[in-house]
Write a sequence for this structure.
């Protein structure tokens, strides 16, 4: 089945920081970051070919996303059209811990053997707090991105806090091998 992918990223972060500890005025400091980017269909710089997105309940035993080929804990997964994928380049990662309960965090990273190179080492992890979002964007050419190779650096481990079962929404955007 022939597919094509168009990806648009729009992010806006705005803050208004002010003090009321003065007599005649309200000094403020405003901040605004506006980021926009897009990926065309294909391989290479500013391109991607596939997306794998879903939601999954995480427990304290953890789950392992494998990108080459796409699977969760060794069980094959498919894109929205039922196509098996193998991502050899990741261009974007979106993770959202949908839990709002205190203590239901998710540890991202720490795959013992075949962890994604973007985390550097097995001990390098981040904690995704309840209602927290992790977003990573790397639209560069193949030479600038971490290569994903089967059996060496193709896994991402997500583990819930002890006794907790938060749900994670995820989307992985990349190039199909």
């Amino acid at each position: 089945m022939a597919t094509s992918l168009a990806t648009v990223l729009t992010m806006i972060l705005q803050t208004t920081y002010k003090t009321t500890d003065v007599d005649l005025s309200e000094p403020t400091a405003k901040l605004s970051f506006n980021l926009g980017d897009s990926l065309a269909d294909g391989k290479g710089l500013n391109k991607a070919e596939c997306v794998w997105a879903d939601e999954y309940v995480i427990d304290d035993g953890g789950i392992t996303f494998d990108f080459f080929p796409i699977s969760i804990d060794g069980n094959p997964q498919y894109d929205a059209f039922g196509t098996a994928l193998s991502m050899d380049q990741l261009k974007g990662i979106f993770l959202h811990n949908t839990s709002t309960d205190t203590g239901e965090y998710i540890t991202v990273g720490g795959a013992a053997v075949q962890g994604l190179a973007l985390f550097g080492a097995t001990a390098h992890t981040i904690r995704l707090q309840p209602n927290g979002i992790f977003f990573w964007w790397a639209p560069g050419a193949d030479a600038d991105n971490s290569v994903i190779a089967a059996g060496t650096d193709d896994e991402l481990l997500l583990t819930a806090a002890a006794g907790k079962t938060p749900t994670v929404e995820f989307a992985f955007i990349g190039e199909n091998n």
Summary: The radius of gyration is 19 Å.
